[in-house]
Amino acid sequence: MPTTEEPVHHELQCLYREHREWLVGWLRTRLRCHHQAADIAQDTFLRLLGRGQPMAIERPRAYLSTIANGLVVGLWRREQIERAYLEALAARADACTPSEEERALVFEALERVARLLDGLPLRVREAFLLSRLDGLGYAQIAERQGVSVNAVQKSMLRAYRHCYQLLYG
């Protein structure tokens, strides 16, 4: 008796065979690294496998490149977060070198925060980070952003509402 997973796996196998090499080449032009391109291509197909649903894909290359592009953006964001963290760590006079495990945990937490704040306007994100990470008060944030305290309060409310909806909504 065939399971519902068999057609999905068969579709994915065909998609993989027919488009993997193209996808790796497409990614290689963007990443300029064959190994990263192969990893992202593999992650793209894993995303599809994780969906476990039949795929009625009319334009497979457009579909695959959209998923892969999202993964590339995520990779670049992680690299940017890691660089910013390492620069901030190097700038601290009292900095002791964290272990690889501690660094991985910090990078993971920073990535979660970045994903959580995606979709918020820049001024709202900045106000939230200045408050939560830098410990600035609303008056200090207002002065730095050149807005009223009331505008900062509204930004913070919007940021909290956004985070709450993503986490619990």
UniProtKB/TrEMBL annotation:
Residues 15-80 form the RNA polymerase sigma-70 region domain. Keywords: Sigma factor, Transcription, Transcription regulation. The keyword Transcription regulation applies. Residues 111-163 form the RNA polymerase sigma factor 70 region 4 type domain. The keyword Transcription applies. GO terms for molecular function: DNA binding; sigma factor activity. It comes from the Bacteria. It holds the Pfam family Sigma70_r4_2. GO terms for biological process: DNA-templated transcription initiation. InterPro entries: RNA_pol_sigma-70-like, RNA_pol_sigma-70_dom, RNA_pol_sigma70_r2, RNA_pol_sigma70_r4_t2, RNA_pol_sigma_r2, RNA_pol_sigma_r3/r4-like, WH-like_DNA-bd_sf. Belongs to the sigma-70 factor family. ECF subfamily. This is RNA polymerase subunit sigma. It comes from Halotalea alkalilenta.
